[in-house]
Amino acid sequence: MSAPASVRTGASTGQPLLRVEDLSVVFQRKREAATRAVDGVSFSVSPGQTLGLVGESGCGKSVTSLAIMGLLPKRGVQVSGRVLFEDRNLLELSDGELRDLRGAEIAMIFQDPLSALNPVIPIGIQVTEVLSRHRGMKGDVANAEAIDLLDRVGIPDPKRRLTEYAHQLSGGMRQRALIAMALACKPRLLIADEPTTALDVTIQAQILELLRELVVGSDTALVLITHDLGVVAGLCDTVHVMYAGRIIENAERREIFYRGRHPYTGGLLGSIPRLDAVRGEALHPIRGSARDAIPWSEGCAFAPRCDHVEDDCIGQPPSLSTIAGGHHLRCLHPLDRLPETEILETTG
Amino acid sequence: MSTGTSGAEQSPGGSAAAPGEVLLDVTGLKVYFPIRSGIFFDRTIGHVKAVDGVDLSVRRGETYGLVGESGCGKSTFGRGVLRLNEPTEGRVLFDGVDVATMNGENLRSMRRRMQMVFQDPLSSLDPRQNIESIMTEGMHAHGLGGGGSTRRTRITELLEAVGMSASALRRYPHEFSGGQRQRIGIARALAVEPDLIVADEPVSALDVSVQAQVINLLEELQGEFGLTYLVIAHDLAVVRHISDTVGVMYLGRLVEQASSDDLYAEPLHPYTRALMSAVPVPDPDIEDRRERILLAGDLPSPANPPTGCRFHTRCPWRQETRCDDDEPQLRELKTAVPDTTTAHAVRSGIAAAPHLVACHWAEDIRDGHIRAKSVEQVAADQGVYIAAEGGLDPAAVIGAGRDAV
Fold it and tell me: Complex ipTM, two decimals?
């Protein structure tokens, strides 16, 4: 059920809806060293566009999304930079103003739908809550709208589902219910944090199709946070690769997948067993694990794991420089070309 | 084993099969879990048929990949083979010996030869034991490795084989990263010199870069120690990469089995086709070109599986006759792509497994005599309503056959 690329890629050339500028998040606990989880991240998304934020666990992609939504705890967390939603800096809004925006203009979908849904309240009430809070709907009107929403996200027998609890739904149904809640007020910006990671592939295909329709059909801006480059390849217009809190490479998706230059991007692509790869080839993993990162102040955080590391990688942190239109790279010794995987040809 | 002797030569009582001979032979395996009800009277009101009649054989030196989605019974199958869950019915022959007839000491010593690697390395390693203690426990139990210092040398060698240093011995599981823990779990399994390793989702809890390290490690160890693997995973790309033969499970049954190359080149079962079409590929051009076969609805309950073909409630190719009431059995279909088969045999020294499929209409679907219905049609046929505002394109499924991968 894939739509041709031309339908959605670069669908909108309008003004960015969300502009994140130099966002940093520092966790500071008493008597402990500060942890810089997000370190000067900048990106922007326009309506009808899908932006992918990619990285492994601990790279700061989820903290970025929570900072945008204003969902990080106030104590022990310092957020700096600017998050501009149209002209308003979300980081400067009061809690009340943020509550008016969240759920109405900006919505979020989480990885684990079971913990994102309230286990002791029926699904229906959780959906109508959004409708009454932001759209002033009450009673039967709200119920009818909730049924319509569940119906739109492909939940069979929506009327019955309204009275059911989260534990009575399958994983895919729960994620649909969560998406229904996110769509209740036709948000202009949707942030999806690993929306399909907990789901089986056939259900994942259904959910991704739903998100794709949403972006194309209602001109929503989508920020997709994921570790799965396969999902990114099919859904995102631009891709930002994060490592240890910083964006290390970003570009339009074809540029990243075919002309990515950062050794980490290349390493990620070389690590994935492809369904269509010719068998017998060993994978090309990255050495070590994300734990081996060094602080950016001491040089390139990826240097300890990098196969192309040179002496000057340590000492001075590399800056994000432009290497082609819309392609930015944070690396002193980039790859000439990505390692190639031999793939099997498909007929037709 | 580190000195090059294979586990088979050392196995007491094992009629060491040569590479390519059947090591594990499972026939009609069923594992049912009772559903109980009532407070005073503990009545059994039904059974969850997690594994419902699976035939499968794994040859020595081969990697058999069992793939399927959550709830299909793949993990229970692995546990049933090792008798970690007692099979309800069926026969498991390990190296010619019926595992079900064994008990006590026999079973215990047989288990040395069949080890398991678990999905979550943190919960499968005792947090209060250090690595040395974790690794030697099995060797103690089976009287392997000689005295203290030889045993120490041996586990140091094993840790090196999985890419870790001897400094790990005195440390505890929480001090390691996920990838390192999985390496320890693999080293522990190797410590008792097994013939067969059942790996249940060995890499799914790991980050992609680390996942690739562990996959490569498993492949290296197989060559080094002459191991046979039964790898159970939900990720078809991982399974296809690592396995010689792939079995696809759906709702407690094996629906298709083929050599890894044949399965990719010519998936015959409608479920396999849908599964393959749903796996994302990290390549924008391919992602844009491929057609997805969307399935209607969710997995039916394994307590009350559909009659006939278990997949008929979601199958885009369901026919009016046979599918609903006649359960298809696995049968062999000659594959139309012989060149990949030869390449495969040359590589692993093991002949490609026959291509088996449990579908009445496999040939007609392959040859394009039957066309797929759209997801809405399937849903409507089954009385399940799937909404499709503005989007789910019915045309997308049609013609999504061979090119759907």
Answer: 0.85
